[in-house]
Amino acid sequence: MPLPDVDVRVRPALAGFEPYDPAFSPCKVNLSANENTHALPRAVREGIAAALVRTPLNRYPDPLANELRDELAAWHGVARENVMVGNGGDEVLFNLLFAFGGQGRRLVVAPPCFEEYKNFAKMCETEVVEVWRDEQSFALDEDALVRAASDAALVMLTSPNNPTGDLVDPALVRRLLDETDALVMLDEAYIEFADASASLVPWIRENPRLMILRTLSKAFALAGLRCGYLIADRSVVDVLAAIRQIYSEDVLAQAVATEAVRSRAEFAPVVAEIVAERGRLVEEFDRLPGVTQWPSSANFILVRLPHAAEVRARLRDEFSILVRDFSYAPGLSDCMRITVGTREENDKLLRALHRISEGE
Ligand code: PMP
Question: If exposure means fewest CB atoms within 10 Å of the residue's CB, which of 36, 145, 262, 340 is most exposed?
Answer without folding.
Answer: 262
